[in-house]
């Protein structure tokens, strides 16, 4: 009977680890595919010059499309003085376009660091010992499923939006300094706007990438804690070097992820303000869904960053909890080095703006948003 229970326990553990690996690996493959389609994938050095130029042209094509439409969109926002619904839609579209432009430039500028991080992720996922376990793995899955559902609902409601917020029946609210009633011009502009709207999936792709990069750092820290607890003391110097490599990977990850996160926080605040100004408008459903999507994107990023910091602290506690009096002097020194490094937790931050991305920072922003909506509702109810 005991052997049966042991076998069942091992089988359940293997199944959980396999599912965790499959989920992370599938997410990495999906993010890779979308990055290649959206023009932000760092091509390896083995790719020929011809295909490198073609891919650079694809990047320029996406960037030029966003630049060509962003000015008419903000012109529509500035020229709308009566209907707040039109102004809100224009602001929403314009901010999404700015997000896309920032991401295109950011990934182009950081392509060398980005290439190194992707190679580390690929190496970690293809190790023979695929020990990838996530304590709150279901949280990320549920969050991304909700984001996908609300994204579909936004598209449906956006297509069904009232005619008052359309301009000559085009897809966006952009207003051009020339007539768009001709059939040829309308077809060209519609194709142009379709490209822009489809490329906006780069926003969700970058959020998925940020979470994936942070999770890989978390997994490496967790696996290192297991190795230090179970392996022989003679391998401790090797684990010190591995710990240093993980800390360097966290620093490289911060260079990529911090821009993505701070962009999400900024858009969350602006979308919340615009939704609050339109809080009792009959067409507010799209704005509410957008705020909820950005809210979930922000939450997943904060959750993954907080888990990474927690794993780093747990590593220091695990080393400190070992039997020091039985160790040699060299081993004590090695453990002291690890503990000292763990005193400064690896984090996602921007100096002067965001001290550390974690659950506490997320709750502060969420509470401020809730207070804002409460204040707006109170003011409107008093004026009725």
UniProtKB/TrEMBL annotation:
Which segments cross the bilayer?
21-43, 84-107, 139-159, 194-216, 255-271, 283-300, 361-380
Membrane topology, as annotated: Multi-pass membrane protein
Does this UniProt record's set of keywords contain Membrane? yes
Q: Which compartments does it reside in?
A: Cell membrane
Source organism superkingdom: Eukaryota
Which InterPro entries does the record associate with it?
A: 7tm6_olfct_rcpt
What's one GO MF term for it? Answer: olfactory receptor activity
Keyword tags: Cell membrane, Membrane, Olfaction, Receptor, Sensory transduction, Transducer, Transmembrane, Transmembrane helix
Q: Which GO terms describe its cellular component?
A: plasma membrane
- Asked if the Swiss-Prot or TrEMBL record annotates the protein with the keyword Transmembrane helix, the reply is yes
| A GO BP entry | signal transduction
What protein family does this chain belong to? Belongs to the insect chemoreceptor superfamily. Heteromeric odorant receptor channel (TC 1.A.69) family.
**Name this polypeptide is given:** Odorant receptor
Q: What is the scientific name of the source organism?
A: Nasonia vitripennis (Parasitic wasp)
């Amino acid at each position: 009977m005991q052997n049966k229970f042991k076998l069942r326990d091992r089988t359940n553990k293997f199944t959980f680890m396999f599912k965790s690996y499959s989920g992370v690996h599938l997410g990495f493959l999906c993010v890779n595919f979308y990055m290649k389609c959206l023009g932000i994938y760092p091509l390896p050095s083995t790719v020929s010059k011809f295909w490198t130029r073609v891919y650079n042209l694809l990047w320029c094509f996406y960037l030029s499309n966003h630049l060509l439409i962003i000015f008419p969109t903000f012109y529509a926002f500035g020229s709308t003085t009566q209907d707040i619904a039109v102004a809100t839609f224009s602001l929403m579209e314009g901010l999404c376009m700015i997000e896309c432009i920032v991401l295109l430039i950011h990934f182009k500028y950081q392509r060398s660091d980005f290439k190194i991080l992707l190679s580390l992720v690929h190496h970690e996922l293809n190790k023979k010992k695929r020990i990838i376990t996530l304590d709150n793995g279901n949280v990320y899955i549920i969050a991304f499923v909700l984001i996908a559902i609300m994204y579909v609902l936004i598209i449906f409601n956006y297509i069904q939006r009232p005619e008052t917020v359309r301009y000559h029946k085009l897809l966006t609210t952009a207003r051009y300094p020339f007539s768009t009633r001709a059939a040829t011009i309308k077809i060209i502009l519609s194709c142009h706007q379709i490209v822009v709207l489809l490329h906006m999936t780069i926003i969700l792709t970058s959020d998925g990438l940020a979470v994936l990069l942070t999770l890989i750092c978390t997994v490496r820290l967790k696996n290192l804690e297991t190795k230090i607890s179970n392996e022989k003391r003679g391998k401790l110097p090797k684990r010190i070097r591995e710990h240093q490599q993980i800390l360097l990977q966290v620093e490289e990850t911060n260079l990529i992820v911090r821009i993505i996160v701070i962009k999400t926080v900024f858009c969350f605040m602006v979308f919340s303000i615009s939704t609050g100004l339109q809080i009792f408008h009959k067409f507010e459903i799209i704005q509410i869904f957008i705020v909820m999507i950005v809210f979930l994107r922000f939450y997943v990023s904060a959750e993954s960053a907080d888990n990474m910091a927690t794993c780093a602290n747990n590593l220091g506690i695990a080393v400190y909890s070992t039997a020091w009096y039985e160790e040699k002097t060299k081993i004590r020194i090695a453990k002291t080095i690890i503990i000292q490094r763990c005193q400064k937790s690896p984090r996602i931050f921007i100096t002067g703006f965001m001290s550390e991305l974690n659950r506490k920072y997320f709750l502060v922003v969420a509470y401020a948003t809730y207070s804002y909506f409460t204040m707006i509702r109170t003011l409107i109810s008093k004026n009725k």
